[in-house]
Amino acid sequence: MRIGELSRRTGANTHQLRYYEAQGLLEADRGVNGYREYDEKAVLRVNQIRHLLNAGLSSEDIAYLLPCAVGETPELLGCPELLAAMRSRLQRLDDQMERLAQSRNALAGYIDAAGRMSNESYPPFDDAGLAPAPS
Q: Is pTM beyond 0.70 here?
């Protein structure tokens, strides 16, 4: 099948499919006319890639995991290297969430403090609301 049909069958746009191919996640043969030709397995592969991307994995992570993927959702066979890679990605996500939570709490604290202050204790601001107006 050509790239347009693969796109219709998977919901991935052609730009994404070309990206998957460039990242080594998807393989295509070339016809005599130079067009990409995909086999039926490509539909399953694209669905696997999209599920793994939605799980927050990078294309590099996915390239490593795909040989262990079974089924559309996919299920991943639990080889030690695979588990270590997924645990590492989960730790990175946990770290990002912690940093975001700290940023959110700090911002909420600034908002609360500003809300308790009298308007008169702040210098007047310009129209943009970001810089004090010149005196």
A: no
